[in-house]
Amino acid sequence: MTLLKKELATQIPLIRDDIKALINENGDRQISNVTVAQAYSGLRGIKAFVCDTSSVDPDKGLIIRGIPLLDITHILPEEVLFLLLAGRLPNKNEVKDLQREFSAHLEVPDYVWKVLSEFPDNAHPMTLFNTGIMAMQGTSVFRKKYDEGVPKAEYWEAILEDGIRLLAKLPALGAGIYRMRFNKGARIDPDPEQDWAGNFVHMTGISDDSGDFHKLMQLYFMLHCDHEGGNVSAFAAHTVASALSDPYYAVSAGLNGLAGPLHGLANQECLKFVLNIRDEFRGAPSIDELRQYCWNRLERGRVIPGYGHAVLRCPDPRFAAFIDFGKKHIHDDEVFDIVTGLFHVVPDVLKEQGKAKNPWPNVDAASGSLLYYYGLQEYNFYTVLFSISRTMGMISQMVWERALGIPITRPKSVTTDWIKQTV
Ligand code: CMX
Description:
Bound molecules: carboxymethyldethia coenzyme *A
CATH superfamily of the largest domain: Citrate Synthase, domain 1
CATH architecture of the largest domain: Orthogonal Bundle
CATH class of the largest domain: Mainly Alpha
Number of domains: 2
């Protein structure tokens, strides 16, 4: 048994009792109302279910298990996974133990590569990535144990086992797809001595003499790990997992949502937007030119990618962390200069336009410019990176949902006639 599993096995009975008591004492207390407008607005703002791995404060951004994101930008993705699941940071021994567990499951089976090699050249990397995950569904420990009749109280253990095995393989799956899809040559074998992010960098084959690309990927995979439970990918994964579909089905459902341009695909859209600006102006334009460019885009009815958010009402701390990294490591780079220039103009443009409730940058506004600088320039690959990281949040939420016996998701929809009669 891994140290992480031991920790969860200690915590779960206590938290089950705590929540049982909470429901017994306060189960009929109201925590949210729903207006007619909300019923037609993507359930925005309705407090209707629980996610303890992280929360998003509109004015502060992501808080992971009570810790504001900007306080822990130095930690490894492996440490943040432990934090999401166990609610506390791991010690050195616990990190090593988790890394050892990952190292035992690094290899993506050969049949996955055979399936992926049949795709046409224009297949989107997210399609390949999700197909790779689905192709491995037959290896699910949860599926096998469920078929054998494992008791409900033990579901979480099999979900955790699936989650660790799947997460261990994602850097190899992502890097292999990168090399296959962008003709970079044969796949590079994983190195069991590397950390999770380092292994990804190693397997892409992108040279990293300074070690700064490795540092960026540690930060990248850490920052994208989770964003509470109601975003499209987390909610889709939560819903599918609630039917007791195994984590391969549930994670790929979530990632199919992440592949939408209003969600995770915005990072690809954002760099495309920035490169178009660079090409049109043959370099970084002036602030006035940038402002006009943004107005032209809005007037054509298009969104400014990387800006706005359904919950946040402040500059995203994940954006701040990336800009901070860029300012430390990147000098005289026109792509990064355009990104910082956009931060000067877009919020005012969006405020003046008066539509977006949040005029500030989100996580996707800066990440692409950093990846581009270090040589990962094929921007339609970027959502795969987001996916590798976000799977940590989806798995952590699933482990706890099964540990707490959360039942199948089934909110009640109503008809327009019902609303008219009711109001
Ligand atoms: N540029 C232009 N218009 C924007 C905008 C932006 N960046 N953000 C919001 N708006 C518009 C909306 O399209 C909407 O217009 P309509 O009334 O014409 O439909 C209006 O402002 C109100 O939208 P909102 O309530 O502020 O935003 P939503 O909660 O509906 O949507 C989001 C949130 C993120 C989808 C939206 O801000 C957006 O499209 N942003 C650009 C895409 C993006 O960066 N997505 C990544 C989000 C982070 C992530 O999940 O990865």
